[in-house]
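Bumping with the actual sequence this time:
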Amino acid sequence: MIDEDVLLCSDGNRIYHKFAKKKNITHKIINASAGEHTTEGAYHIQNVNAYDSRLKNWIRHFNGVSTKYLESYLGWMRMLDRESDLTPQKVLAMSARRIDTVYT
């Protein structure tokens, strides 16, 4: 589900334009192949591209991921992305908190 006030920022692929039109959402197009990195000074796709690149490189270590476990791998990646000073103790503590919320 997508809120009506969402803004889609994408490359020029026509599928995004069709999607935005169908869902009646604002669509800002960045033409990266023409050297554009932003539009109107504020809209860009670099955060998504950077995350996508980091995620692909990280998943590559596992030789692919089963869709059954994809949510767990994405959560693991999100944790690694957000926390800069992880230690084994912090990871165990975070896991314990997650288990507590799941089973309570």
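The tokens above came from a reply further down the thread. Residues 7-44 form one domain.
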